[in-house]
Structures are given as structure tokens and as C-alpha cells.
Design a protein that fits this description.
Blueprint: H1 28-42, E1 44-51, H2 59-72, E2 77-81, H3 89-93, E3 101-103, E4 106-108, E5 110-112, E6 115-119, H4 135-148, E7 154-160, H5 167-176, E8 180-186, H6 190-205, E9 210-221, E10 228-229, H7 236-244, E11 248-254, H8 256-264, H9 268-271, H10 276-293
Parallel strand pairs: 1-7, 1-8, 2-6, 2-7, 8-9, 9-11
Antiparallel strand pairs: 3-4, 5-6, 9-10
Helix pairs in contact: 1-4, 2-10, 4-5, 6-7
Amino acid sequence: MEKTQTTCDSCSHKASCSSAGTKPCENEQERRNRQLMDRRLGSIKNKLVVMSGKGGVGKSSTAVNLALALVNEGKRVGLLDVDIHGPSIPKMLGVEDAKPRAVEEQILPVMCNELRVMSTGFLIPQEKKAIILRGPKKNLLIQQFIRDVAWGELDYLVVDCPPGTGDEPLAVLQLMGSGTMAVIVTTPQDVAVLDVKKSLTFCEELKMPVLGVIENMSGFVCPHCGEMVDIFKSGGGQVMAEEMKVPFLGRIPIDPALVKSGDDGTPYVVAYPDTETAKAICGIARNLIQKAES
């Protein structure tokens, strides 16, 4: 493999580039790290952070299937799992035994269904072993995922964050910088919407644009008669989006096969492309593309 240029030293545009010079209180290693980070991010057109202020809303399954739906639309997509303490992306994609390779001082992402994937789950030596990290070390790990992974040219980098508004989403936003957009996942019931609103105020306070809200587990389509049943109510996510004046991307109905596909490691939109739920996810992906690229 050809060695990748990792600094500005041999770049013909060095004289006019804002990344080339050393910043105040920055040593040589920090300058090189910043240059490499800028170079990685410069190859990514759209940076999407999938967030939720509430656990259990299906955020990771939404991130996985949304990323694959973007691949189905002909997009070059990377999926970064920064849920450091509970990484589930490798299991959902059926690649939990994969090990990323290091080549020429960079890490090659795991490939799955044309999706480029990186997760803390690939680095855990034992399935039941806990990762015990505090804030600064979390930030360094996330920085390494963005800086050292050879993402290549991407149309979308989808980042799956853990629930809440703590270290991980804050580190991702600070590292990826301007142009980063949030995709907020909620379920329809009031108790979820109340917590998820905190993610929207988080984005507002940090001046991160919200690309839209997705209402997950929104109704159940009977596979026998086609009737829609609102098990967890319906419309709460859309009402929240309207109240908070952010776009609404769409609803994803409940399908038991979605849970089974995650446990089996067979991505839902790949295994069940003709279901109403898969069609809803693909419709959300097209809606997202329209908003992101307009």
C-alpha cells in the first residue's frame, strides 16, 4: 500500500493553508496530529452524529440501518461507534470477531456490506470485559478513531453516540468541528420525548445544526392484515420536532425482525428490504440526503 501523506510538509498549498503553521502553545507532535485530523475530516463531506437523551430508543439499530440505507443510495459511508462502554455495532453487523489492521501508521476500518466500520468493540479482548475510562482518556480514544482510521473519501460519516449529553458527544463535536450535524432519535411516548429534548438543547447550546428527528418504534404494522397499531403511541417525535423548530425526518414502525436481525448480525435493511419498516428507513435516508446536500 502506498504510504499516506500525514502532514502538510510536502503539500504545495502549505503557504496559504490555515492548518500548516504551528498554533500558540502547540508542540510539533500536536501540530502533526492536528494536521492529520484536518486531513481526515477534509475527505468527509457530511458528518452526522446520531444522538438521543434517552437510552433504549433503538439509536444504534437506527444508526446501523440508516448507514446501510445511505450505502444503498450509492453513498460512500463510514460508521463510527463511540459508545465506549457498551459498543453494539459489531454485533449488529455480524463482525464482532473482526480485528482492524494497522498499515503505515493508520488503522484500516472493518468492511461490511460496503460500509467502513470502526468501534471500541473491536478492541475489547474479551466479550465480558468492561472498559473503565474517565473523560480525558475517552477523548483521546475518540480522537484516535477520527485521526488515525483511514476512512478515505466519504460522503457520510455516521457516528453512533451513547445516550445522553456527556463526554462522548461533546468530544465528537469538538473534534469534528464545524459542519457536524445531529440526527436525534426518540420513541413516541412522553417519557422518552422529555429526555430527548435535552439532546436538542445540547445541540442548540453548542451551535450544532440538527439535521432532523427520527421517531423510532412508531406503530406496529401487523404482518398478516397490514393494520397499524400504536403500541407506544405515535407522533410524539414529530410534535417535539415542531415545538423545537427542527426538521422531522420520519417514523420507523416496530418490526420483531428488526430485533432478531440485530441479534443475528444480519443488518435489517439488507435481510428484509421489502418490509414496511425497511422502506421507512430507506425513505428517511433519502429525506436525510436531500436535507444534507441541499
